[in-house]
Specification:
It contains eight helices and five strands; from the N terminus they run ααβαβααβαβαβα. By secondary structure, the protein is an alpha/beta fold. The chain has one domain (4-179): 3-Layer(aba) Sandwich (Rossmann fold). The protein has a five-stranded parallel β-sheet with strand order 2-1-3-4-5, sandwiched between helices. The protein is globular.
């Protein structure tokens, strides 16, 4: 136990450090209006990422889609592009993996919809290509990243860059951002106008 406790303490302190920068409140303040506008205009919000970021995308959809229903009955229309395994693997097999999200956006996305790409490095080719497609189609774009932001930071309208070079801490914070957004949209955000 003596060797584990210092490691746990260090890990927790490093995660806290990644949360203490003002970027978090600033990023949430920029994302919330984008999401509220999407709900008010009955737009679709698309989430996507790879690996751990894929599970974060699915988690966001479950939380924001279900836990934020207000008394006026308005809902966030959310889709995780990582959850359609058949479409994902068909594009990966028949074309190339870098197109798996871009091609789904080309089919489903409409101007005014929102694309939220999650990439710890900010350099995942399929997330970058999807953001290029989203921009071309007139979607609003949000990127969750770390490690300085990578190329994703400059491709999106609203980047949230976790100030860490540890993939574990970046993914921890991305999941917290999803919970924070969900809680704020449920508890504090004004109801969308009809």
């Amino acid at each position: 136990m003596g060797e584990i406790a210092p490691y746990v303490h260090r890990y927790v302190e490093e995660t806290k450090a990644a949360l203490s920068d003002p970027y978090l409140a600033e990023g949430i303040a920029r994302v919330v209006p984008v999401l509220l506008e999407a709900r008010a205009q009955d737009r679709t919000i698309f989430f996507f990422g790879n690996g751990g970021s894929a599970s974060t995308a699915s988690h966001f959809v479950a939380d924001i889609g279900k836990a934020t229903i207000r008394g006026d009955g308005r809902r966030f229309r959310c889709i995780a592009l990582v959850d359609n395994v058949e479409t994902l693997t068909a594009w990966a097999n028949d074309a190339e993996y870098s197109r798996v999200f871009a091609e789904q956006l080309a089919t489903l996305g409409r101007p005014g919809d929102v694309a939220i790409g999650i990439s710890g490095s900010g350099n995942s080719p399929n997330v970058l290509r999807a953001m290029e497609t989203a921009t071309h189609l007139g979607l609003r774009t949000v990127g969750l990243t770390g490690m300085g932001g990578g190329k994703l930071k400059d491709l999106v309208e609203v980047p949230i860059v976790v100030p860490s070079r540890s993939m574990q801490h970046i993914e921890d914070v991305h999941l917290l951002i999803g919970h924070l957004l969900t809680a704020y949209l449920r508890d504090e955000a004004p109801a969308a106008p009809r």
